[in-house]
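Quick one, T. Sequence first:
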Amino acid sequence: MRVAFIGLGVMGYPMAGYLAASNHEVVVYNRTVSKADAWCAQYAGKSAPTPAAAANSADIAFVCVGNDDDVRQVVMGDDGVLDGIREGAVIVDHTTASATIAREIHAHAAEKSIGFLDAPLSGGQAGAENGQLTIMVGGDAITFARAQPVMDCYAKAMTLIGPAGSGQLAKMVNQICIAGVVQGLSEGLHFAKRSGLDPELVIGAISKGAAQSWQMENRWQTMVDGQFEFGFAVDWMRKDLAIALDEAGRNGATLEMTELVDRFYAEVQGLGGSRWDTSSLIARLL
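Structure tokens:
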């Protein structure tokens, strides 16, 4: 396939690499040109000066940028993807953004007979680097079927949730659940230490039962040790929770725990932890 990849951040850089390694013809665009040059040197790909130019001959254009404004700019702005991509092609947005922007792009793309999928990711930087991402997808079944074999090269699981915007809504559910799990684990570890228990023995016991989680298995030791230099930053989590809380304001969902944990993350930012891993919730309690 001829593909474009727009955005070579900590997620996009290795994902575009997997596309190239799978023998797709990849053209990349990145706002910081030096990063695009480095990617091309590593993967023997090509770069383009604008998103439109990158998407010009693409069968699928992938986007993985920061937020709604970034997506709007690189897809619908001047020299954006929609200015260059051909009729009948597909745009896949891997950005974690709002369902509103997903539906907006879907409508504009449909006017030009271009398919669109909102396809946010779970798995973080490690998942991108190892080709083990979970992808939640919004869009129609025909467009999904066209893009799925290409996304398979960096995915371990992929699910079509529903129409445009559904992938972003599912990612909000994902982040809401993670926020609650990390806060519960933080308080549990804090309680264990205050009670004079050995955290390793406690985790060894309870991780084999109903309390088990990915966060527990992979983060309990670093949380106890006060080490938070991992992939998914507090700043990014607060961005994602803000999207979920904003959506809840429209759909009437009650997110009391999410609002509370978001305030706790604000406290972590106040401790200087803006770039700490999300497991740093426990820093408030250490």
